[in-house]
C-alpha cells in the first residue's frame, strides 16, 4: 500500500506483549468514477470482498518495542483479485476505503 500506513503507539504496558493488526473497510456504500477531473458517485457499491486481517510481521512484541519507534505497515499488499492466494487484502476498484488499526494484548492469548 502506498503510502504505507504508519502510526506511533503510546500508553502500552512496557512488559506486556501485543499484536498489531490492520484491516480495511468500506468508507461508504458508493461506487465512484473519475469524470471532468474529479471523482463522482457512480452508483451503489459492489458486494464487499472477504475481509482479511493483516497481522504486523513483528507481532507479538512488547509494549516497549512498539513504543520505541513509529510502526509501519509497508508489507501490507492490496489487490482486486478475488482469487488471491498470497494473503493480500482484497478491495474493489473504484471504491473508498478506511484503514482500521487494532492493538491486541497478547499475554492472555498466548498462555
UniProtKB/TrEMBL annotation:
All residue ranges annotated as the T-box domain in the record: 1-111
SMART domains: TBOX
GO BP, sorted A to Z: cell fate specification; positive regulation of DNA-templated transcription
Molecular function terms, GO-annotated: DNA-binding transcription factor activity, RNA polymerase II-specific; RNA polymerase II cis-regulatory region sequence-specific DNA binding
Localization, UniProt: Nucleus
Gene3D superfamilies per the UniProt record, alphabetical: Transcription factor, T-box
Gene Ontology cellular component terms for the protein in this record: chromatin; nucleus
Coiled coil: none
SUPFAM superfamilies to which the protein is assigned, alphabetical: p53-like transcription factors (SSF49417)
Keywords of the record: DNA-binding, Nucleus, Transcription, Transcription regulation
Residues spanning the membrane: none
PROSITE patterns noted in UniProt: TBOX_2, TBOX_3
Name by which UniProt lists this protein: T-box domain-containing protein
Amino acid at each position: 500500500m502506498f503510502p504505507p500506513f504508519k502510526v506511533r503507539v503510546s500508553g502500552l504496558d512496557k512488559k506486556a506483549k501485543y499484536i498489531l493488526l490492520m484491516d480495511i473497510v468500506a468508507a461508504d456504500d458508493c461506487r465512484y468514477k473519475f469524470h471532468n477531473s474529479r471523482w463522482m458517485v457512480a452508483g451503489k457499491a459492489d458486494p464487499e470482498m472477504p475481509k482479511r486481517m493483516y497481522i504486523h510481521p513483528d507481532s507479538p512484541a512488547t509494549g516497549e518495542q512498539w513504543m520505541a519507534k513509529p510502526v509501519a505497515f509497508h508489507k501490507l499488499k492490496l489487490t482486486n483479485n478475488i482469487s488471491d492466494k498470497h494473503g493480500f487484502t482484497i478491495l474493489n476498484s473504484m471504491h473508498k476505503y478506511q484503514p482500521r488499526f487494532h492493538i491486541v494484548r497478547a499475554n492472555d492469548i498466548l498462555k
